[in-house]
Design goal:
Number of domains: 1
Mean pLDDT: 94
CATH architecture: 2-Layer Sandwich
Low-confidence stretches: none
CATH topology: Alpha-Beta Plaits
CATH class: Alpha Beta
Structural class: alpha+beta
Radius of gyration: 15 Å
Order of helices and strands: EHEEEHEEEHHE
């Protein structure tokens, strides 16, 4: 299979997010799941859904993969498990969350996977870091990531660490 560009969302509100995110990126490469191309700054945000929990740290990763979207999702879930993610309530506290946001320009609706991610256009903690690393990327809505992030705004987000955190 040829290489496909993909974007992954990372989130955490338990433990040391920066260390956990680095480990996740290392495992993506070690397992042959994806090659990281670019990583956003780390952004802090208030919890979404279940609000009685610690603030989240979020980032977006641009990567290339030779895996199918479903195989990449399964690798991401396996990496979450290796790093110690325990099942909890939806939108509850988590050590690591790896979401498949975009997989090239492919649309997928499957019981196990929906791409583009259904929350992509609704969440500033995804759009703002996505626009940081791929401002000219045209989203399924037909606008660029920068335009979508600008329209959404960044209220409620703060930079935790600049783009060099992963090095």
């Amino acid at each position: 299979m040829q290489t496909v560009k993909t974007f992954l969302g990372l989130g955490s509100n338990l433990g040391d997010a920066q260390t956990t995110f680095r480990a996740a990126l290392d495992l993506l490469a070690e397992r042959g799941a994806a090659q990281v191309i670019s990583v956003s700054s780390l952004y802090g945000s208030k919890p979404y859904g279940v609000t009685d929990q610690p603030d989240f740290t979020n980032a977006v990763v641009e990567a290339e993969t030779r895996l199918t979207a479903l195989a990449l999702l399964r690798e991401c879930k396996a990496i979450e498990a290796v790093l110690g993610r325990q099942p909890t309530v939806r939108w509850g506290p988590r050590l690591i969350d790896i979401d498949l946001l975009l997989y090239d320009d492919v649309n997928i609706v499957d019981p196990e996977l929906t791409v583009p991610h259904p929350g992509l256009m609704l969440r500033p903690f995804v759009l703002v870091p996505l626009a940081e690393i791929a401002p000219d990327l045209i989203l399924p809505s037909g606008v660029s990531a920068a335009e979508a992030a600008g329209a959404m705004g960044s209220e409620g987000l703060w930079v935790v660490e600049g783009r060099k955190w992963h090095q």
